[in-house]
UniProtKB/TrEMBL annotation:
Membrane topology: Multi-pass membrane protein
Parts of the chain that traverse the membrane: 20-38, 50-68, 532-551, 563-583, 603-622, 669-692, 698-716, 728-748
Domain of life: Eukaryota
Subcellular localization: Endomembrane system
Keywords of the record: Cell wall biogenesis/degradation, Glycosyltransferase, Membrane, Transferase, Transmembrane, Transmembrane helix
Protein name in UniProt: Cellulose synthase-like protein B2 isoform X1
Pfam families documented for this protein: Cellulose_synt (PF03552)
Length: 749
């Protein structure tokens, strides 16, 4: 463990960035918003209902801006010094790595294989790592692919360590051609490894096409007659690192698990899978730290575990009680600038308060915290306080909390007391692991309630995060350059919109359960600004005012109403617009993104707000009224345009992703609001230009319409394009019908 001598240089430092420019800009925009609201109040009686609606919308935007200003006020992040860890820490702690996957079609096994290979090859003592893959799809193909991957790992892991490879996911590593001259030892190894990787890809591909290959193999018997939602628990130790001493040629433990599923049983999606992972790993390796990555995310930095350990092992000089270390979620598709910029500012802001929220992937958790421990249960030296020992370790409370498996309870006691786990044979725990995978194992226990990943929201990350921070723990944000983890983002716009819908629906679910920052306002140890940050999940309510605001200029043109202030006061709106544009542009450019990507992101936010978030509100309303349940639809993962089916992508070309500005449409309902908005605004502009409303100049409102059309430009283009870049006829008809109704309604009154 760490030597706590204060004379040694620190393992990590928290760096605060106070940008007075940013604060000034935030406050100026806030001031402008408030003066606009004041102007509206003062002139309320002279105007009609449009004025009131605009006032309500702008009040909502102001509240959101106030919240984000609070969150972004004092950004921070943690810088780590992994080079110092070896001289400070003689016995690095173990880490259990969890990779959940759920569907071999939406999550092609070759993607999972690459994620796993990058994690197995991490630069950390091999005998201190164990990798667990949970398969909610109960797929023999996934199991087969992982088995093959473990064979290739015996070549890949030593290769990476021998040549100190940085990017340890083969599909990314082999994108670059061989740099050295042929004939050297390195080039021979490189070519051999590449050949083996391509063989692996081919095997996976052939197995994907043929469904009978597994019939003859006994090892696959467990998969016969199973359905993804109807099967018994499967636990397979794919590779056990027997007697490992941490040698560079070793490969870490590697285990495949799939929990029991039966129809009519709630299985709690990813959170349920994570809790099963926690239990099985508790029985087998019981590492004090757990790394969670999604199955499409690979380690892009070989030192990532050491970096995280720098934060945890800072030791007694770290009074902050860090419960988890979160890395940013970035993607290699380079099509997600919008989300990256948003995350970069918001999560850094949070890191300056109580700590970043847990983002669901790329996060190191402490097992004891996941078992429900609070900071006051722990003494300065890390051991349990005597009160906590009495309460938590009481013989009858443990099975009530953690379930009836004796082995499980024993492992929990060891974990809580941070007793080092004597190495034992993994296969001896298979029976116990199967027991804790039963559908009803969690029945009447605290799993998902106060222990492990929490249930009752599709964004289990947010839910779990609020609970951890509410107990008084902090967290750290480590954002190295190059990024430590890279994942994929949905390639299709409708997939991206679906993902947004799920995130916001999940966030709203959090508001209505027991972790709700609203309900727990006075009760718990969440810091004030952190609570405000969690309230930001209300952000999807913004979709209604956004929708209204996109329609108001058109309505006013058609109805001869006034939307914007007149004379000098129009200056408020113009300055607001100008400042907001410059400010968001600065955010983009300061992170190295182009003006083009800023433009696209402005569109994208409007489209997300008026479609995904709107549907989130439907979802949550239906759930609250008990009409329907929310469903976790897994995001489709792709490795688009692979070379010869080898999982290798050619050089980064023009992507068609949501951020490229090139929109692909399909018949999905997500494209309806955008099409409707564009049609309505075009109609209003047409009416305006033929001079219908000569009596009322309405120039400002017409400019408003033009701005809306520009923001929804992909839809305007979609009206004229053909094929996948054109809006489908059915969507167009529905939108046109709604637009006609809107125009008639506006003209009629
Ligand atoms: O029943 C399920 C559903 C999902 N998953 C896994 O959960 C992960 C995340 O699912 P994905 O469809 O990729 O969701 P994303 O929207 O991309 O994920 C983000 O948002 C989720 C919450 O909505 C978080 O759980 C994720 O960690 C976070 O990366 C994947 O590895 C899935 O295989 C399961 O294991 N079981
Ligand atoms: Mn994902």
């Amino acid at each position: 463990m760490a030597e706590s001598s204060s004379s040694l240089p620190p393992l990590c430092e928290k760096i605060s960035y106070k940008s007075y420019f940013q604060r000034a800009a935030d406050l100026t925009i806030l001031g402008l918003l408030f003066s606009l609201l004041l102007h509206r109040i003062l002139h309320m009686t002279q105007n009609d209902n449009v004025w009131l609606v605009a006032f309500l919308c702008e009040s909502c935007f102001s509240i959101v801006w106030l919240l984000t200003t609070c969150i972004k006020w004092s950004p921070a992040e943690t810088k780590t010094y992994p080079d110092r860890i070896d001289e400070r820490v003689h016995d690095l702690p173990s880490v259990d790595i969890f990779v959940p996957t759920a569907d071999p079609v939406r999550e092609p096994p070759i993607i999972v294989v690459n994620a796993v290979l990058s994690l197995l090859a991490i630069n950390y003592p091999t005998n201190k790592l164990a990798c667990y893959v949970s398969d909610d799809g109960c797929s023999p193909l996934t199991y087969f692919s992982l088995k093959e991957a473990s064979k290739f790992a015996k070549i890949w892991v030593p290769f990476c360590k021998k040549y100190n490879v940085r990017v340890r996911a083969p599909f990314r590593y082999f994108l670059n051609p061989l740099a050295t001259t042929k004939g050297s030892e390195f080039s021979r190894d490189w070519q051999m490894t590449k050949r083996e990787y391509e063989k692996l890809c081919r095997k996976v591909e052939i197995a994907t096409g043929d469904s009978h290959w597994s019939d003859a193999d006994d090892d696959f018997e467990a998969f016969s007659n199973t359905k993804p939602n109807d099967h018994s628990t499967i636990v397979k130790v794919i590779w056990e690192n027997k007697g490992g001493v941490g040698d560079v040629t070793e490969v870490p433990h590697f285990v495949y698990i799939s929990r029991e599923k039966r129809p009519n049983y709630l299985h709690h999606y990813k959170a349920g899978a994570m809790n099963f992972l926690v239990r099985v790993s508790g029985l087998m390796t019981n590492a004090p730290y757990m790394l969670n990555v999604d199955c499409d995310v690979y380690a892009n930095e070989a030192d990532v575990v050491r970096q995280a350990m720098c934060v945890f092992l800072q030791g007694s000089s770290n009074p902050n009680h860090c419960a988890f270390v979160q890395y940013p979620q970035e993607s290699y598709d380079s099509t997600t600038d919008t989300l990256t910029v948003f995350q970069s500012f918001m999560v850094r802001g949070l890191a300056g308060i109580q700590g970043p929220i847990y983002l669901g992937s790329g996060c190191f958790h402490t097992r004891r915290v996941m078992y429900g421990l609070s900071p006051e249960d722990v003494e300065a030296n890390g051991s349990l306080s005597s009160l906590a020992t009495r309460e938590l370790l009481a013989a009858d409370s443990l099975p009530r909390g953690f379930g009836n498996s004796k082995e499980m309870v024993k492992s929990v006691v060891e974990a809580l007391q941070i007793k080092s786990n004597p190495q034992h044979i993994l296969t001896n725990s298979i029976e116990a692991a199967q027991e804790v995978g039963h559908c009803d194992y969690e029945y009447q226990t605290n799993w998902g309630k106060t222990i492990g990943w929490l249930y009752d929201s599709m964004t289990e990350d947010l839910n779990t995060s609020i609970d951890i921070h509410s107990r008084g723990w902090t967290s750290s944000y480590v954002s190295p350059n190059p990024p430590a983890f890279l994942g994929s983002m949905p390639a299709e716009v409708s997939e991206a919109l679906l993902q947004q819908r799920r995130w916001l629906t999940g966030s709203m679910e959090v508001l209505f359960n027991k972790q709700s920052p609203l309900l727990g306002m006075f009760r718990r140890k969440l810091r004030f600004r952190q609570r405000l940050a969690y309230l930001c999940v209300l952000v999807c309510l913004r979709s209604i005012p956004e929708l209204f605001y996109c329609l108001l200029p058109a309505y006013c043109l058609l109805h001869n109403s006034v939307l914007f202030p007149k004379g000098a006061c129009l200056g408020i709106i113009i300055t607001l617009l100008g400042m907001h544009s410059l400010y968001t542009l600065w955010e983009f450019m300061s992170l190295g993104y182009s003006i083009q990507s800023w433009l696209v992101s402005q569109s994208l936010w409007r489209i997300i707000a008026t479609s995904s978030w709107l549907f989130s509100i439907f979802d949550i309303t239906l759930k609250l009224f008990g009409i329907s349940k929310t469903v976790f639809i897994i995001t489709k993962k792709t490795m688009s345009e692979t070379i010869e089916g080898s999982g290798l992508r050619p050089s980064q070309g023009e992507d068609d992703g949501p951020n490229s500005g090139k929109f692909e449409f399909d018949g999905s309902v997500y494209f309806l609001p955008g099409t409707f908005i564009v049609l309505v605004n075009l109609a209003a502009l047409a009416v305006f230009s033929v001079g219908y409303s000569l009596g009322n100049p309405g120039l400002a409102e017409a400019c408003g319409c033009i701005l809306v059309v520009i923001l929804f430009f992909p839809f305007l283009k979609g009206l004229f394009e053909k094929g996948k870049y054109g809006i489908p006829l059915s969507t167009l008809c529905k939108a046109a019908f709604l637009a006609v109704l809107f125009v008639v309604f506006s003209l009629g009154k």
